[in-house]
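General statements about sequence and structure are easier to judge against a single worked case. No coordinates are needed to read the tokens, only the vocabulary itself. The sequence in question and its structure tokens are set out directly beneath this paragraph.
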Amino acid sequence: MNSPASAQAMAMDRLYAGQKRVYDISRKYYLFGRDQLIEKIHVAPGSNVCELGVGTARNLILLARRNPQGRYYGIDLSAEMLGEAARNLARTRLADKIALRLTAAEELDYREFGLDAPFDAVYFSYCLAMIPKESIVPAIESAWRNLAPGGVLYYVDFGPMSGFPPRVSKMFARWLGLFGAHYHPEVVEALCALAPTSNVELTPLYRGYALMVTVRKPKSD
């Protein structure tokens, strides 16, 4: 019997098999906030940063170019997307700075990358909208476990679209559903539950079309 993760992997591969080559071109028209997130991520010299749901590695490559002083890691459950990520990475000079693994977000383990300590930053970029509802909290908890004390968890994804008329919000929701994407309010609840309120920053983007969240892990954890 297939595990939930393997069933999800097959679903992701079916979805992206025909889209992977045009994914970055098409998604730039509606995955808003990704570049703002990349600008926001702080990378100190020697920092280790991990993206959960790396996709084509578009974000990770841009982040590594912007911050060459760090080292970068990415995981994804879709072999189709990781194959595309590897091809994109091969066209850069960043192969020694970026490592990729095929695994589910909820099964992330920094030690599988040969690291002796958790990541200094982890982030989700338009990933959690695509996974089953029952996997959301385990994925967030996994990211938090693999984050060093004092590190930061970053998130950007579809928001509640509260700045739009209800009929427009419903239209957006139906359209996104065609791509298997959904806004999940429980994501924000789970992120806000990770740390004291003073360590959490919520930033609506584009009238709530997207939402950016940062959560700093207390140094005492």
